[in-house]
Every structure is written in C-alpha cells, then in structure tokens.
Amino acid sequence: MRMRMEKADSSRRSSRNQPNALPMLSILAKDIGELATKEKEVFSPILKKWHPLAAGVAVATLHTCFGSELKQFVLGITELTPDAVKVLRAAEKLEKDLVQIAVEDAVDSDDGGKAVIREMPPFEAEAVIANLVKVWIKMRLDRVKEWIDRNLQQEVWNPRLNEERCAPSAVEVLRIIDETLDAFFQLPIPTHPALLPDLMTGLDRCLLHYISKMKSGCGSRSTFTPAMPALTRCTTGSKLQGVWKKKEKLQVTQRRKSQVGTLNGDTSLSMPQICVRMNTLQHIRAQLEVLEKRTVTCLRNAESASANDIANGVGKKFELSPGACLEGFQQLCEAVAYKVIFHDLSHVLLDGLYVGEPSSARIEPVLKELEQELEIISETVDSKLRNRVITDIMKASFDGFLLVLLAGGPSRSFTRQDSQIIEDDFKSLKDLYWSNGDGLPNDLIDKCSKTVREILPLFRTDTESLIDRFRRTTLETYGPLAKARFPLPPTSGQWNPTEPNTLVRVLCNRNDEEATKYLKKTYNLPKKL
C-alpha cells in the first residue's frame, strides 16, 4: 500500500506542469480512493484469511500516508484560494470513503473496528476550510471599515448629488456589502449556512460604525434647548417704563444670544446637511430589506443548505442596523427641529417675540422665517419622512412659544388684555402647519398643541385667581411644609396649568402691581437678572 501510494504520488507530481491541471493533492486523493476501492474488491477478500481486518489495515495505511502530505499542505496555506478548497474537499471525501471501508470491513470484529479507526486521526478538512473562510471574512470586513472611514472624511452631505438626496458614501457602503455577500456565496465551500452568521454579524457592525459616525456631531434636542433664565418679577408703574423697556430689550437680546450660543452640538452643520443624513438612514433601512431577501435567495441556491437553514431567520438578517437607523433618524429629526427653532430662528423667536410691548413684537417675523425653513426642508427631505420632520418642528415651535411665555426673562411682561394677542398669534402659528388643508392633519396639530391650549387661559385669568390657584397647588404638592413658607417650586420644564412652577411663571410675567407685590413679599424675586 505504501509503495502504491508513492507511485501515485510520483504520478501526481509529474502532472504539475500540465495546463488546467487539478491541484496535485486533489489528484493524489482521487488516485488513493481508487486504490482503496481496488484493494477492498480484489485483495482484501483473499488477505482476510490471514488477517481479520485486512481492508481496514490497508485504508488506515493510506489514510496515514495522505494525512502526512495534507498536513504539510495545510501548513503552507495563508489564504482561501480555489485550489486550497479543492484539495481540502477532496481530502474530506477521501476520508469519508476510507472510514466507510474500514467500518464495513470490521462489522464482524469484536470491537467493531474501533482499533483501526483510532489509527486514522481526522484530517479536519472542514475545520480548516471554516478557519480559512473566517480569515477571508475578517479581511473583507477590515477592508469595509477602512473604506467607510476614508469616505466619510470626504463626504460633503450635499442633497443635490443624487436623485435620492442621500449620501453617496452610503450608496457605496451598500454596494460593497452587496459585493461581499455575492463573493461569499461564490466561495467553493460546503458550509455557507454555518458561516453566514459570522459574515452578517460583521457587516452589521460595519453599518453600525457608519451610522454612528454619520450622526455624530449633529446634536440632539437637549443640545439646542437654551438654558432658562432665573425668575424675576415685572417692573410696573414707572414713568420711565418705555425707556427702561428699550434698554432692557437690548440687554436681554444680548444675554439671550449668549445663552443660545453655548450649545453642545456642531452648529456649523447646515439644516440641509442634517436632512441628507436623515434621507441616508431611510435609504439604508430600505436597502437592508433588499439585501436580506437576496441573501435568502443565495442561501437557497447554496450547496448543502437545508430547508431549516432557509426557514430559520437567525444569521440571515441585519439584527442591529435597522434599529440604529430608526433611532438615529429620531435623534436627527429632533435635532433639526430644535436647531431650526432655538438656533436658526432664535433672533426672531427668543430675542424678538413679545420683547418689550407685546403688541409691537408679534409673531409675524417668526412665521415668515419659519415658512422659509419649512420650504427648504420640504425640498430636501425624502417625501416619506417629510411629515415626520415637520411634525417635530411643529412640536419644537410650540415648545419655543411656551418658553417665550413662561421663561422669556424680564424682557417679557403681559397684561390680561395681551392674552388675546397671544391666542391670535398661536392660532397663526398653527395655521402655518395646517396650510389651508395642504399641510399636517388638523387632529395632529390639535394633539401636539394640547399643552399650549391648556396654558393660554392662564394669561387671561385675573391675578387674584392665579395667586389662589398657585397657593392651592403648592399646598397639594408640598403638604404641611408649604403652610409655614411657600417654597419656590423647581423648574420641571413639563409645563402644566395645574403645576406650581408654571403658575408662578405666569405671575412673574404678569404686568400688574398685585402680582409683583406678591412675588416680592413671598419670594423676594428681583426685577431684573
């Protein structure tokens, strides 16, 4: 057997330079398989008279000889190549054939052929293939990550670069992922179902890396919400009130600008650039479904894929990226909404609306600039996302409106008569989003404006009733502690007509003598910051 093996090996080496030749060890494996079959059919039945396991000894000898050659070959493999796979698969087939002959030959022996099988240590060709595929997967994933980092540095987030108004880098990321999946299924291996989860998990993480990098620096809701000024009481009854208000308006405008300027996010990003990022997340999420369906189709056509492999969803889906796209979109949607209202429009909203005399600082400048911003967004954001983005801007504008009314600082003061101005202005703000029926649904606007509509009646309520309501809610909130001394209620930011902090803020901005005396006596609030 050893001599025949050496002869077959010599024949294999002589075919090395033939055109289109199979890998040499593949030829050797084929020759050994034929040799083992001939041994089993011709010689073993005769030799069995002198040795009970003649065929088993023969194939164990061949197994050892080929195993030595295979071991040297495996040590020299550095990457997955078609030739390497051919050799390993030929070795796997040969081993199955040799073991089968040994088992059949030992069926009547006392130990069932265990002694012979122990003389045939496994080639572990399948494990070698799996390890080579894992190395291949790692190299591909490293290449994808490097490509992502390089192209994100060059990305300009221009909405005019393609029809989808999304980032070209995302289109390329999805293309290279598709090519990687296609290359994986073209590998001549029998273990696609078993190794696919490793590849999908790695590609999923690459996409997470892209999504994380893409949304970094865009800020969030808290990034663009300005700090609230300390509570003050109104200045009333002064003959110099008009002059004071002009000076106060200038001072508070400067102060407000400095507050709005201290933001945590990258405010240099334009609104269209953030909108492109939102479009990009939408595009990625949609394309992931396409990639998953294509993966299932490729798996169905793959060798050795069972019905269970195809039916089982594990390892064939992007588990984390779709959720990250949704979460990222929500973050960017809020970021762009609060950026528009509290940063881009701060000069007309926070620094202009109702500063000084409410009747001469109404909402028209805010509406004019807000409408321009909404037009830009409508032209930039994907049509499937448009209503969601505009809804978030609407919510932010309602928050901004309340912030002006309740935390606008000493530059704002309202009489009961001003309540009609405030209500009319808020109706104009809602009408902008309704847009004569072409904008957001009326029931959605009503739902989002619920808090503002509940608080606006406080501005036409007489001061005495406001003080009584404030006392009652404070007693209900703080119990016996409030009987000795009314504590100044902390700011929750969750405005509510029955919440003490909301009520005291209405009193702080109430332009009458009774309110300012009560605030001075109860809390000794100053008239200016």
TrEMBL record:
Pfam families: TPR_PATROL1 (PF25761)
Domain MHD2: 360-470
Annotated InterPro entries: Munc13_1 (IPR014770), Munc13_dom-2 (IPR014772), PATROL1_C (IPR057984), unc-13_homologue (IPR008528)
Residues of the MHD1 domain: 85-228
PROSITE patterns, A to Z: MHD1 (PS51258), MHD2 (PS51259)
Domain of life: Eukaryota
Gene3D superfamilies documented for this protein: 1.10.357.50
Record-annotated membrane-spanning stretches: none
PANTHER family in the cross-refs: ELONGATION FACTOR TS (DUF810), PROTEIN UNC-13 HOMOLOG
Identification of the protein by name: MHD1 domain-containing protein
